[in-house]
Amino acid sequence: MAHQIIIYTDGAASGNPGPGGFGVVLMAGPHRKELMAGFRMTTNNRMELLAVIIGLEALKQEGQQVTIYSDSRYVVDAVEKGWVFGWEKNGFKKKKNPDLWKRFLQIYRKHQVKFVWVKGHAEVPENERCDELAVAAYKRSDLQVDYYYEEELNKGLEIST
User: Fold this and answer.
1) Is 146 a residue of the active site?
2) Catalytic one of 48, 55, 126, 146
3) What's the pLDDT tens digit per position in 62-79?
4) What pLDDT sits at residue 80?
């Protein structure tokens, strides 16, 4: 029997843009896994969305029932209010982070996903843990490159936080 999967996510950036990171806590029955990574130049919203993507991509089987807890209105509202599906129909024209939204939609459609918004820094233990992971990730010395973001930045395109 499959367990209900709970995923907590958070993203952070020091400066926006600046070094950023994400933290993920996955829980299923007695199992728990923590994930984190940091990037040398990115935005908070990219890290919030990437945390969700990484959490979903970590699932070993398709068709899972997943509840994602996030303090990102950007991510939660885009999905729960259906905005991202309209953006997709319009080819993500003039939308920020199209690379990550496309990647999100691919993995999102493989599961039954529900989002729950939680207030950040409100003493929700798993959300606080994700924040700790995200901040620790961007403070590391071995930061990864957010290639899409840095390429857009180098083109001088207007990209958002």
Assistant:
1) no
2) 48
3) 999 999 999 999 999 999
4) 97
